[in-house]
Amino acid sequence: MEQVNLIPFYACAIAFARHIRSDLEKEYSKNAVNYYSAAKQSEYYNALFSDELSLQTEEAYKKALGIVEYSYTEDEQAQISLDILFKKGYRKLYNIFKRLPKDEPLHFDSVIGEIIYVKLAKSDHVSDDNFNGNLFAGYYFSDMWPQELIERKECDELLYFIANYGYNPERRIQKGLSKYDCAFQERAKSYISQLPKDLFKQIQLAPKNDEFGYTTVFDIESLSSVSIFSELQFTREDLEAIAIAYTHGKRGGIREDFLTYAKYTSYILAMCKAYKQSKEYYFQHNREDVYIEVESIKNELLQAKSALSESQERRISEQKAYTEQIQRLSDQINLLKQKNDALKSELQKVEGERRELYALREHIFSLESDSETEIANELSKEQIQQFKNISGTIVGGHPSLIKKLKTYLPDWQYISAGDVSTVRSAALKKSDFVFFVTAHLSHKLYYAMIAQAQDWNAKIGYLSRMNIDYALQEIYILVNNSI
Question: Alpha-carbon dihedral of residues 199, 200, 201, 206, nearest 10 degrees?
Fold first, then answer.
């Protein structure tokens, strides 16, 4: 016999146990985000298993389906929830299975028959939902036995019938005359020809002189048949449905004449369509998806706050070796980072010294040239104006030279010879260029300011001439070569 997937049947069993609806809500809320997603992704979410149920039972079915589907991901919480729901929903059946020895054959058909007999003894009938619920729950409880010890034949055949006939839309009474043989179609068409063309218009308008009083029950229940039916769309297929139902009914011994049958059946058909419409609207517009999204965001925020510490505490025992390896790699990364930082620092120091040596070399070359050489061209106002676009610091120098430089470079910084404290002052601003006046400069100030210039990554220059024009030329040459 073909294997039957029990997932939708387990969900049906939980949904059919109406007395545990509050328990279902409680268990579902423990992991609503994942259960909702699992149900929506299931191939059984919109199957006939749910479509034919009442609104409340269909909602319970979809939630139970989410728990069942998610339990197959080896989620411990979902499996615990399933046990709770089945044991509460079918306590008597569970107690029967619990008492039986697990190392002896399980006569499954007899156990199911026993529980159904007990129920029949207390009532004159057992509903299909009640019977099917106990049958499906029995399959769940039978997992306590090794499969080779389970003796099950009649119930397997019944389950196979339910799966392949009871929940197979192709096995149901079909809508549409084209799906029937010619003889059936001819009988049905003869009935349709007797129907008034405005049959459904009559029930939508609900005339007050309705001699049969079909709308009275709506008034008793404080409902408006006009409001309910006016939003429905009726087609010829609905007329065919009444004729098809009557044709099947005649085979079963129905006695009413067709027009009488059509009168009250049209109301039943309309109520069925309205109820289906209400169910579709409910599931299309329910707010559970918004609730799920909000809960998901809340969970993410909570997890983000404690994920690292909780994850380490939870996994430390089983992933000790992995954690130690991460620690070793982390130590190596930190060591390499320290080496990298040290090399960068050394490189910056070397680069600073290179700039210093380059500036010193240029200074020495200028000293070797004829000190009495005449200035070829004095700087123009435009050339001096360029100095305003850069920041510079003059270190050392005779007061007379500094006084003259300030007239040309008023926005630059000036540190007098021997004033080492200024180098450490917070008021000292970063400069693009640092010029040392070698004629008036202490060693202590020189080394302090060289270190500062290297931190700034500033260009370094030396002024060897006391003549203001020569000094400006030297400044201009270094600045111009660096742009």
Answer: 100
